[in-house]
Amino acid sequence: MAYYPKNKIQTNLSTNGNEYQLLPNYNLDNGIYYIGYYYKLYNGETYTGKFPGDGNNDKLIFVGDKPSKPKPKSITPKSTPPLFPTEDDYKNGSFIRYFFKKRNEYLFKEITKDELNNVDKNLYITFELRWILTGVKETVFNTNRNITLLTEQKNNVYGLSLFLNENYLQYYK
Questions:
Q1: Is residue 77 a part of any domain in this protein?
Q2: Do 10 and 54 share a domain, yes or no?
Q3: Which end of the chain has less Cβ packing within 10 Å, N or C?
């Protein structure tokens, strides 16, 4: 494993396909593209793995954005206004909120449960939050904040708290 100064290497890069192929499989017609982490050296060479020494570090060949088959057009899920809690939800003390986030962008949308089931999971990350509605104000705030922060970490959807404007008392009674 060679040592590279930090200014001679870019690490922890990733590709979701259609850019690189493994050198032994290089053939635009085979349609086998590399998906995953890679790192790039100062001379432009790219290798699999987050950094040198992370696995086998096979050489990659840049083939550009040339998919062998046309991708089907995807339908963007429609955002719906957030559903308001019902009286039953207030009696129960909580309700479920449903969201999606596009995998390659920091765009969040709140949707209904039915819409959640129709979202293309290859393009979007879907998740739900149990939102606390009643109780001691400080406890509700802290619980909703903690649930949001844990959801960000668990689902890798950082920025959710900003999308919610850090309003952890929304719908509180």
A1: no
A2: yes
A3: N
Beta bridge partners, 38, equal 13, 48
Residue 68 is predicted with a pLDDT of 45
Kindly report, residue by residue over 62-97, the tens digit of the pLDDT. 776 544 444 444 445 565 555 788 999 999 999 999
Residue range 39-56, pLDDT digits in tens = 888 888 888 888 888 777
Domain that holds residue 25: 6-62
- Using DSSP, state whether 168 is helix, strand or coil: coil
The number of folded domains in the chain is 2
The one-letter amino acid at 149: L
Other Cβ atoms within 10 Å of 111 Cβ, number:
23
Q: Are 133 and 171 in contact (CB under 8 A)?
A: yes
Alpha helices in the chain (DSSP H): 87-92, 113-117, 137-155, 160-163
Q: Is residue 169 part of a domain?
A: no
DSSP 126: E
pLDDT for the residue 37:
86
The pLDDT of residue 61 is 80
